[in-house]
Structures are given as C-alpha cells and as structure tokens.
Design goal:
Length: 452
C-alpha cells in the first residue's frame, strides 16, 4: 500500500493490515508523520509531534509481531492526544502559557490503556486554553483551522483533535468533553465524536476544568473505530474514585452488528431542539436523518425536555464554579509559570495568573468565584444544582418512552474566525444542544449527516 492509502484508511483497517503482516507499524507511523509534515503547517492541529518516540513504539510493535506476541486491538494505529491529557515526557500545556513548561512524568490512564492496546502516540493536539471555548481560538499558541475550509473554525475545545482526524493526519484522536467539546468539533469537521457516559473512562491524568462534567473520548472516521477506542480506554481505575466500576460492555460487537434491523427502534425527537436559532441547513440535514431512520423501520416519537431552556445558564454556573476551584492551584508556587519580579506572595499570585491566563479563562474564573461567593452561593450555584437534577429527570422520563434521542449537535455549521470572538454569549450558545448530556452524565455521539 502507498502512504496515501495508509493515511486514508480507518483504524480498524490499519490494525487488520498490521495484524496480517501486510504492512508494518513503522510504515503506518511514517506515512502519518509525513502527512503531518505535509499538511499541518496549514491546519495547525498539532501542538507537538512526537516523531522519535512514535517510531520507537512502532518498532517495538513490529518486533512483538515478529515474535508472535499479541499486539492489541489497536496494534499499529496512530493516535493523537489532546494537550489536556498527560503523556509521559511530553509537555502538557492545556493550551495555556501558565503550563508551558510543565512536563508530566506519567501517562493519563486513557493514554496508558491506548498504549497497552497497541496504539502509537504521535503527538499532542492544540486546544482552547484549559478546554474553555468552542472554536480553538482561545489557545495561547495558535489557531487550528477547519480542514474543509481554512477560513472557518474547527470547533472546540478539542478542535486540534477533530481537525487532525478530518485532515487524515491520524485515524484516531482523543479529546475531552465538558459541555460539548468532542461532539461540537466533530460536527464542525464531519468526523465521529463520542462523549462516553460520565465515569466510563478514567479522568486520572486529565487536567481538570469542571470535575463533575469532564470526560475523555475519541474522534474517529467510523463508528466502529470509536467502539474499538472506547473498548480500549473504558473500565474501573483505582486512581479515579469517580470512575465507574460497571463491567465494560462489548462495544465492538455491537458496532460490528451495524447491519442489523432497526425496525421498531424508538427514536425520540426533542421538540426543544428545533426552535429558533437552528440554522435551516442543519434543520434539513437532521430531518433527512429522521426520515432515513423511519424508512428503515424506526418509530419517530415526539418528546420533550422542558428544562432545556435553562441548560446554558445552569452549565455556565456549574462549570465556572468548578473551574474557579480547580484553577486555584495554578498560582506560581507548585508548577508552571512564576513571575520572578513579584515582591510579595499576593503580588506573585496576581502577576503569575495575569500573565499566564488568557481572557476567556479569567472570565470564567471570575464568573465561578462570584457564583460561589458569600451571599450568592444559594442564589446561583445551589439553584443551578437543583435545576441540574431536573435536567437529569427530563432524560430519565424521555428514556422511559424512547430508546435513543436524535437531534442536531450544533445550531449552525462551522463559523468563520472572529465571528463570535467578541461576543462570548453567542459563542456559549454554540453548545446549547450538547451541555445537557454533560449535566445529566449520559453519553452522546455526533455523526456526520451532510454539508451545508
């Protein structure tokens, strides 16, 4: 196979080719590294490319295969990692100047498990600073472009991972989703993006934004690849007490049964997901999806999620409150940036955080600190937590009537750079259809369903 054939292949195909001895892991890795060298100067999906260590991992896999040793369900498959996840010996900047010099001495659990499954880590991808954003315009280092149109954003905060898969730089990339940061960029780049159930994948080694919402998950070009990646990463982890101890299902077997009949499947269509603000092209694409499901025997059922109107408000109180608490650790004392000109402890805190954090991070820290402050905690944070419970109950009620919910991932297709940069509220509304799943802790999958 040519290098172009290899980079256009999905993860399952590459794994099978490698397992059969038709191509080496080294050939697969070098083809993707060459693709990155060729196209990434225009895309800027990667923050760091770990070529030397990737070739070493590939060489080790080739040796193991030659000895007849197992190479894993992702043997020889390149994977890119969002820069909010720790990879041993590689800087974990979280897209922020404050962590520019931080090099973790360990792998995040999900990275550790991907390596154990035979995946080859080829680099770290660009992201919105501390995963706060919907466009990857808030990275402290660069702006990642949408491979379909370089004038448009790839979504965020996992825009680098989404763009890397869409640009055929890797067949698999890992992102994180706090309020839609996997599903929204997947929609913007026509890739498959999976946010698993909260706790399905360990958060150990994931630098926290909002601990009750954050969840790692894969970007791929097929649903089967997403199932393979989830299978590899899922499972209990004693280092993360919020990680689920439920047995890991055979996701791959389910995905491989994709040709099975869906006759009788009850598909819920939330009426709140088709109101004002939904782009006409997106509305039509989702309608065609409903019609395709119905034509194959699914039953389309109208359902209601009545607290959806409050979801953005609830999310931006809960998420910013948790961010305010989590980001307090970045103070110039333990790791990361420190302003050497400071003369007092307070001065050091102020100078370090002012120089190290970007505007969006500062905005969210201030919002969260305000919501948690004396006199406002009950009025904002406590009330938001109560409505969060109502949002979960809405989903519980809907799933008594239907098997799945199908609707738009985003209210519009990818917007142009700068269109929403000076209007934070408009940017926040990009997540209107995704934040509810994080608040409820349920899974969500974004599938390509057409173009504008």
């Amino acid at each position: 196979m040519t290098g172009n054939d290899l980079v256009r292949s999905d993860a399952a195909t590459l794994r099978d080719l490698f397992a059969r001895g038709e191509v080496s892991a080294t050939e697969i890795t070098r083809a993707h590294l060459e693709r990155i060298r060729s196209v990434d100067p225009r895309i800027d999906a990667f923050h760091a490319v770990t070529a030397a260590s990737a070739e070493q991992q590939a060489s080790d896999l080739d040796r193991r295969r030659a000895l007849g040793e197992p190479t894993g369900p992702l043997g020889g498959v390149p994977v890119a990692i969002k820069d909010v996840l720790c990879v041993r010996g590689v800087p974990a900047t979280c897209g922020s100047r404050i962590l520019e010099s931080f090099v973790p001495p360990f792998d995040a659990t999900c990275v550790e498990r991907l390596r154990a499954a035979g995946a080859v880590v080829i680099g770290k991808t660009n992201m919105d600073e501390f995963a706060m954003g919907s466009s990857t315009e808030h990275s402290a280092f660069k702006q990642t472009k949408n491979p379909w149109d370089l004038q448009r954003v790839p979504g965020g905060s996992s825009g680098g991972s989404a763009a890397a898969v869409a640009a055929f730089e890797t067949p698999l990339a890992i992102g994180t989703d706090t309020g839609g940061s996997i599903r929204q960029p997947a929609a913007f780049t026509s890739t498959v993006g999976l946010k698993p159930t909260y706790g399905r994948i360990s958060r150990y080694g994931l630098v926290a934004f909002a601990s009750s919402l954050d969840q790692a998950g894969p970007f791929t070009r097929t649903v089967k690849d997403a199932a393979i990646a989830l299978q590899a990463m899922a499972g209990a982890d004693p280092r993360d007490m919020t990680c689920s101890i439920e047995p890991v299902a055979d996701y791959v077997a389910v995905a491989e049964g994709g040709g099975a009949s869906i006759k009788g499947l009850r598909v819920g269509v939330p009426r709140e997901f088709s109101g004002d603000g939904l782009d006409a092209d997106v509305r039509q694409a989702v309608k065609r999806c409903h019609e395709a499901l119905q034509a194959r025997g699914a039953e389309i059922i109208d359902v209601s999620l009545p607290t959806t109107d409050y979801a953005i408000a609830v999310y931006y109180i809960v998420a910013t409150a948790e961010a305010s608490s989590n980001l307090a650790r970045f103070d110039g004392v333990r790791y990361g940036l420190r302003d050497a000109e400071a003369t007092t402890l307070r001065d050091m805190y102020e100078r370090t955080r002012d120089a190290g954090f970007g505007d969006e991070v500062k905005r969210r820290i201030m919002l969260g600190t305000y919501a948690l402050s004396a006199g406002y905690y009950d009025a904002y944070y406590l009330k938001a937590m109560k409505v969060r419970t109502l949002i979960r109950r809405d989903f519980d009620e809907a799933f008594r009537k239907v098997d799945i919910l199908v609707g738009p991932t985003t209210p519009s297709a990818a917007f142009r750079f700068g269109d929403k940069l000076d209007d934070p509220l408009s940017m926040y509304l990009s997540d209107i259809y995704t934040v509810t799943a994080n608040l409820a802790g349920i899974p969500g999958l974004s599938l390509p369903c057409g173009f504008t």
